[in-house]
């Protein structure tokens, strides 16, 4: 699933940003809901906790995507190194000239 999300263009920085935004949204929703006397304090606590629980999921997905980004970078570096080695083997050496 993480590899698919990575191929779709989702990056770890986006998930970290979503995690931070969900923390801010949780605090904001709690502050805005707590003053609504008709709904009561329970509603404010409910919405604040509900949105706040998203943050760990976003951060965990960010870590997983970062690991996938590192694997992808390693694959590209290995492929580039192999290509360089193959080109070096195809090019005749001028050491004996």
UniProtKB/TrEMBL annotation:
User: Any stretches that span the bilayer, and where are they?
Assistant: 12-32, 47-65
Name the keywords, alphabetized: Membrane, Transmembrane, Transmembrane helix
Q: Where is this region: Disordered?
A: 74-97
Protein name per Swiss-Prot or TrEMBL: Uncharacterized protein
Q: What organism does this protein naturally occur in?
A: Microtetraspora malaysiensis
């Amino acid at each position: 699933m993480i590899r698919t999300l990575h191929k779709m263009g989702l990056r770890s920085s986006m998930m970290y940003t979503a995690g931070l935004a969900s923390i801010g949204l949780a605090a904001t929703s709690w502050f805005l809901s707590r003053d609504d006397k008709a709904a009561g304090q329970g509603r404010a606590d409910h919405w604040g906790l509900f949105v706040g629980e998203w943050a760990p999921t976003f951060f965990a997905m960010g870590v997983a995507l970062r690991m996938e980004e590192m694997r992808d970078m390693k694959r590209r570096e290995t492929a580039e190194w192999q290509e360089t080695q193959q080109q070096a083997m195809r090019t005749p050496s001028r050491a004996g000239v």
